[in-house]
Design goal:
Blueprint: E1 2-5, E2 8-11, E3 14-21, H1 25-36, E4 39-40, E5 45-47, E6 52-58, E7 66-72, H2 80-84, E8 88-96, H3 99-108, E9 112-119, E10 127-132, E11 138-143
Parallel strand pairs: 3-7, 8-11
Antiparallel strand pairs: 1-2, 3-8, 4-6, 5-6, 6-7, 9-10, 10-11
Length: 151
Amino acid sequence: MESSVGAVTLSLGTFHHIGFVVASIPTSVQGFLDSLQAEWDGTIFHDPNQAVRVTFLRVKPAANPLFELVEPAGENSPVIPFLKRGGGLHHLCYEIDNLEDQLTLSRAQGGLVVRPPLPAVAFEGRRIAWVYTKNKLLLEYLERQRRPAQE
């Protein structure tokens, strides 16, 4: 699906992962592995910019999107209110070519940028941004490639 703003035409990007908020990755991961018949390498990333810890589960075939488990890392974590409502399915993430153009398009479509672009530990410093759509869907956008100025 493609959308455009001015002369810019964008596709939604590549479906990268589905995020689930959990109280604890270590106590939740086995249930997800069993339910999804997924694989896990045991890596848990702490991202102080996002105030979360995350890990990724891979389901077969490898072309499927990843499943991300998101755990709050501290009392100021932005996922705490969601966890207090029971946690669960939280967001969809798309890998895109141009983050600024995508955010411009999202705003033009009535979306609210709730977290501006920040480097993400789990993605080797590639930037992510968060958009809440007018249809109440939380989308995470991940830059496909790290920008040269970020190195």
